Amino acid sequence: PNHVAVAAHLTKLGDKESAARLLRRALELDPLNQPALVALLRIDLEKQSLDEALGWVRRLPDVRKPPAALMKELVQTLESDRYLFLAERGVAIDALVARLAAVRQG
Q1: What is the DSSP string of 45-63?
Q2: If 0-12 CB within 10 Å is exposed, 13-18 middle and 19+ buried, where does residue 27 land?
Q3: How far apart are CA 99 and CA 75, in angstroms?
Q4: Which end of the chain is more exposed for a tag (fewer CB within 10 A), N or C?
């Protein structure tokens, strides 16, 4: 099945937990599934639960053409005081900023 399409429908219905579960499954099947990764990160941003999503954040710079707007939003979110003591915060920010620079040049 098209996990991303079903997850988008579940999100519209307000069932973000089921959508996130389905997107995680899609990423288990295909770790470079960019639409699933982006959708999952958007759900996590809305829920303000980036501490759960740092593994996904680390994968974002590795996908072929990550959305620059999402990467900027993630950097701003991670730079906020709420995530000041998050263990891998600096590494994630550095990776996102480096990939953003590469996307702008490319």
Answers
A1: HHHT-HHHHHHHHHHGGGS
A2: buried
A3: 11
A4: C
The amino acid occupying position 84 is L
pLDDT in tens, 8-42: 999 999 999 999 999 999 999 998 888 998 899 88
Segment 92-101, tens digit of pLDDT: 888 888 888 8
Residue that has been written with the tokens 């996102």 in this structure: 96
Please list, in sequence order, all residues whose beta carbon lies within 8 angstroms of the beta carbon of residue 31, skipping any fewer than 6 positions away. Answer: 59
Spatial CA neighbour of 56 closest among 45, 65, 68: 45
Looking at beta carbons, which pairs linking 94-103 to residues 24 or more positions away fall under 8 Å?
95/57, 95/58, 95/61, 96/57, 96/60, 96/61, 96/71, 98/61, 99/60, 99/61, 99/66, 99/71, 100/68, 100/71, 100/72, 100/75, 103/65, 103/66, 103/68, 103/71
